[in-house]
């Protein structure tokens, strides 16, 4: 049972390029932590530093009470699942699973039992005598998972393990991995997980907490719900959620938010939450939280295009030059009438966020916190 | 209407037949050309085999390769040689050079190539540059300094100068070939092995070497064939007849007889090329895989 902590972790490459800028992260014992971010945000580098595959140039990594910076990957008590499985091509599945245990010079009986247990849990018993090239993508990924599981490590590391699978298989593997995590936790086994992905669906559905990264910095660490409802900054606000949050440029003046040509009254509770008023502000509102209202009572936007998604409709519109998206029910859209070119919108007061345009911070959360 | 249709059909049919016939003629021509050029290339080898069964007088009288009166005399007498040793002794000598040289090359070049391909160390670029420089250096240039060195070590008239340098990764070509092959293999498997607890040696032996298989077979084959054919090396370092490898022994039969017994020489030449041919045909598949996949796939 171990927690993982990164303290001021830094990575600078030979050419002087700084990939990771002194990040701090605590992963609690048994927690499923997802590192998510766009490509090049250093999430994989961070994971590889935890694994010991990448040198640490500053700060420390602790697993349990040990500082593991200088330890070889094999001595860190971790297991890792790679994006392209990285199964040993010349070994049968059985040998792939037991390779780590054989290196530890475990007894034959012990190895056989551990292999059988893992094969049963992951339902790969019929595959034990096959070579990796005879496996499908999903099967290979389960073997890779088994190779991690068999070691009973303190920390599991996953490096985009599902990105090579097709959408259907990815969904089922997602469930399998979360179930496995719950099962390990329930059985009192160590189950601390650090999971890297660029897919926000994976992040939102799998993680106990999510760490959003950008350019080697941590932007926010929070539960999926909190991340969605209370994004700490513009980056998180637009990165999490699909379709992404609408950001409308403007300024807070008095009790109103002024866009380029229109204004809308802000909720008293929101105004109370607001700390210092930013000079340049942006109003953030998710497409689901914009309501259609009668003319004269909201912000006016010109419809550009419409996407029918079945039970709901995505309306893409232009609000004072800013591209926004509104999600409305099919019935509501019908009510607009044929050939409507303009919509009037009012944001749900409780879901409005005000961001400082300069720092990017969500100032409507600051006073709260 | 029907008349026109029938005419059109038969015209189409005729055109199709003409096309088929043209294709067949072109194919026959192609094969005749390929076969005759192939035969031209192989003729010396075929003649060699045929002539080794001829009598000495027939060799020059009959230009064809099928012997009129086949005889195994060339093989029997040739095998006995004009020395106190049979040709078997010379084959054994060749084997004693080839075995340590090939095994040593495979092991040492793998280690050096692994180092260059997977590790960062000071002066790596300079050292790898020198490997490439050695690759371009003509062998002859190092003959004299090497000879002096081995003389001082007291290794003259022994097999050591013939295999020790190669067994210490002295053949830059093989190092380079394996480095290129390794670079094409993704490093993920090795990283997985490290996470599994393997140290660098264990990773090399359990993970890298099995993946290098085809390339290593190519290395061994090349080394085998080049050593079998090496004439200059043994000529310089070996002086006692009892230590001659087959390449030198062939020359021996030319030197020591007053009138050349050509059928014996040809018979022994056939025997000399046999091992290389047999080994090549058995491992052809891996050999081609090894030299063709080097820079392409992982």
UniProtKB/TrEMBL annotation, chain A:
Protein family per UniProt: Belongs to the ABC transporter superfamily.
Entries under InterPro entries matching the protein: AAA+_ATPase, ABC_transporter-like_ATP-bd, ABC_transporter-like_CS, ABC_transpr_MalK-like, ABC_transpr_MalK/UgpC-like, Mo/tungstate-bd_C_term_dom, NA-bd_OB-fold, P-loop_NTPase
- ABC transporter domain ranges (all copies): 4-240
- PANTHER family tied to this protein: MALTODEXTRIN IMPORT ATP-BINDING PROTEIN MSMX, MALTOSE_MALTODEXTRIN IMPORT ATP-BINDING PROTEIN MALK
Please give the Gene3D superfamilies that the UniProt record associates with this protein: 2.40.50.100, Nucleic acid-binding proteins, P-loop containing nucleotide triphosphate hydrolases
GO molecular function terms attached to this record: ABC-type maltose transporter activity; ATP binding; ATP hydrolysis activity
Task: Give any Gene Ontology cellular component.
Answer: ATP-binding cassette (ABC) transporter complex, substrate-binding subunit-containing
| Keyword annotations from UniProtKB, A to Z | ATP-binding, Hydrolase, Nucleotide-binding, Transport
EC number(s) reported in the record: 3.6.3.20
Q: Does the keyword Transport apply?
A: yes
Question: Would you tell me the protein name for this molecule?
Answer: sn-glycerol-3-phosphate import ATP-binding protein UgpC
TrEMBL record, chain B:
- Tell me which SUPFAM superfamilies the record gives: MetI-like
Provide the protein's localization: Cell membrane
Q: Which keywords are on file for this protein? A: Cell membrane, Membrane, Transmembrane, Transmembrane helix, Transport
Please give the family membership noted in the entry. Answer: Belongs to the binding-protein-dependent transport system permease family.
One Pfam family of this protein, by short name? BPD_transp_1
Q: What is this protein called?
A: L-arabinose transport system permease protein AraQ
Q: Which GO annotations describe the biological process of this protein?
A: transmembrane transport
* Species of origin: Aquimixticola soesokkakensis
